[in-house]
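Continuing the series of single-chain predictions for the mutant panel. This is the parent chain; the variants come on the following pages.
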Amino acid sequence: MRFRLLVLIAYCTFQVALVCSAVEGATPAQLVKEYRDGLVFVEGKTGQGSGFIVDYKGQKFLFTNAHVMAGVRAPQFKLLDRSVLRVGGAVAAVAHDIVALGVLDGGRAIPCVESLEKEVSIGDPVVVLGNAEGAGVVNLLQGSLIGVGPNLVEVDAPFVPGNSGSPIIHVRSGKVIGIATYMTIRRSAGSEERVRRFGYRLDSVQQWQPVDWGRFYSEADRMGKMEKTTAEFETLLQDFSKNGKPTRSYETPAIRGALEGFATSAREASSKADAQQVTERLLASLRSASGRDVREAKAAVGYDFFKRQLETEAREREEITKIFDQALKRQRP
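Parent structure:
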């Protein structure tokens, strides 16, 4: 009995070694073939994105970006053969743009690095297996690891926004090191573009938050409205700067209401002093509105991903508020 058990253990060990050796040192094309059953299309009524199945600390999870899930309502998760992946409960990573969903049935997990610093070096080849622009076609995007931060990796594999949620795979080991997340574009005075591409590390997550989808989507909607409001305030300020007055319509209720009240009062103003008071009330109303929804959101937003979005919006609104403060000072005698 003992001999048979030893033979079984040896056989299993041999099989694992064969699988590992088949992946380690594989070409990017071989990795696509090996991991095709681990690549996932995220599809819903309001958008699409990418995801992948990963062996994360001994368990099988579907990983994608939090911003992908925020933009896709009633999502389905499908493999390359269009079979539907069954998933369970979800958690969102703190300080990362990552959501992980437990896999109940389907697909094959891709191995994941346990310690990026120990297993990977800057300059190593990587490949991003992406769903380009949500077209339902896997693209093989090759490049190198060019930077490592506490929570991020930077690569030069040319992924695009539609690749969000795709795995960044270390070619030599055949393991996932991160999740393709975002790119930045900066233009110099000579009109040259500098594009940088970043993904969140999987091995640096220290804390997870359980996801209640009703609350998650409610917070996503709140942040979407806030971003739209910020954009409209910026457009309004440009309008004032260029034309000296608002010349277009605005969808944000607080902005629209302030402008409608201003238009009515301006028509009724009978003197220069009255007109000055009307303008001052408009600026004061817009200044108050520029921070109102931020204050309300701070008490309502609970997921770390949206809290970090809120911090960005709050900084932009502070700058907008300062501009209204300056305008009010110039307006008052």
